[in-house]
Amino acid sequence: MTGLARLALARGAQRLLDGVHGGAGSNLINPGGAVGVVQDGELTVHRCAGLASLELGVPIGPDTAFRVASVTKQFTCAAVLMLADEGRLRLEDDVREHLPEFPEMNGPGRAPVTIAHLLHNTSGIRDMLGIMRLGGADLGQPVRADELMAGILRQRTLNFAPGSRFLYSNSNFLLLGRIAERASGEALPAFLDRRIFAPAGMTCTRLAEQVGAVVPGLAIGYVRRDGAWMRAPHAFPLHGEGGLVSGVEDLALWSQWLDTHPYLAGALSSQAPFSNGTANLYARGQVVREYRGVRTVGHGGLWPGYRTEFLRVPEQGVTIIAIANRADADPLLLAHQVLDLLLDGRPVAVPGPRPAGPDAVQPLAGRWLDPVSGTTLDIAVTPEGAASFATFGQPFEPSTLPDSRLGAVRGMTSFALRPVDADTVEVELDAGHVATFRRIPPGAALPDGLPGRYRSEEMDADWTIEPNGDGLQVTIRGPVTRGGPWRVEPVEGDRIRIPVPDLLSFWLDVEALRDAHGAITGLRVNGGRVRDVLYGHQAA
What we know:
Elements lengths: L2 H18 L12 E7 L2 E8 L1 E3 L4 E2 L6 E4 L2 H14 L9 H4 L16 H5 L8 H7 L10 H9 L16 H15 L3 H13 L5 E2 L14 E4 L2 E4 L12 E3 L1 H13 L1 H7 L18 E5 L2 E10 L2 E8 L4 E7 L6 H13 L10 E2 L2 H4 L4 E4 L6 E6 L5 E5 L2 E3 L2 E2 L5 E2 L8 E6 L2 E5 L5 E6 L12 E5 L4 E8 L2 E7 L4 E11 L2 E6 L5 E9 L5 E7 L6 E6 L2
Antiparallel strand pairs: 1-2, 1-13, 3-4, 5-9, 6-9, 7-8, 10-11, 11-12, 12-13, 14-19, 15-16, 15-23, 16-17, 17-18, 19-20, 20-21, 21-22, 22-23, 24-25, 24-31, 25-26, 26-27, 27-28, 28-29, 29-30, 30-31
């Protein structure tokens, strides 16, 4: 790339960054972020915007560090792959060979959970953050590392049979980190520092497990509430799933290190099919998919007040790093916009994805239900004219796919929607699974007989549903705290939705279960990454 082309790319990246973070003038009072572009092993672009500390007026600079959250996962996977290459573990090993405290799961003919299942997010193990949330604890609730592990070890059922589906679960990578520690005889932070960070020259990168740890140069994470910035509260300890602190320059060094260690780079991006033979986008701590005709390998990070995208395009010799210390930023989109700047300069460029327009989405606007899984889908056009799809409270803006379906083109989401008729849509998800959603008419009422107390042994939590004004609410007594109240919304018949207020807000899809006489016997709860949790009705 010529000097002029690099200058144009740098200016374009800065414009994008300023646009995401409110414009150059507002950067004096807003948190912000940083963007880096690595080309052929050299960090050719590094641009910053906004403040690392609003309280002290410290700007984000080249040396600023951030919590990069789930970008950690590829480093944990790298540690496991190194240990496998040295013969200290095998990827086909049953998890219980290394963690004998991990329980045997219920179910006839249940296949064992292997290390490979953890690496590819196909284990079916429920997400530990979801487990804690169903027990009433949000990310601002102080918990201990052993309490997170206890939540995983209480489980006796899986989201699905190992290897059959994809579902993102932080539990997989906490367990991988513990396995690496037992196989190496070394704490994971020390192992990563000795084997990766120090050899790669990553001097500002560390695995900081306690969120209150003092880290030099660390930007504060912010969230906007009622028009004002506040520090994003977060109190969960972090490990192999998300504890990394790093910055643009160090992640550029990691990209360069991968270029000089092609065996490890290839192992991390190696995909494995599902048990039915269909492809899994999730490799080993990295997501592999095609974008505008090029193969991308990347992973995002999301933690209260911090968002990150680490995106490699190996065949182009390009890596794009986008990090923010504000919760409303979208580094995934920003990284792809910077990639667009690069791809648009190619002699023959595949056109970029086209966002689904309001004309295509407005006829679908409303609430939809998959009666098999109980999952609800909200489709809307925002006041700004953008399309929005949301399941379990997690929205994304769909694009028009090459086959005219509407779905995801970035990140790890597998979602492609096709209208069947005015009241039916088909959605292709992971592993080629197709769900049929039907439109739900408004005006539903809450199920009869719902108030009462319900208990889940796997969550170690008691839910109490009781009247609140004209409606119902849920309060929670869990293993580490009390939670709620959460309001209860009607969906259809015995289906309800429970919105859960949190910094990473979501909703639960819940079904009331009844006996042959019509009396409610319990609840079946689905929370996205925590599926089919049974709460039994308790006698008064």
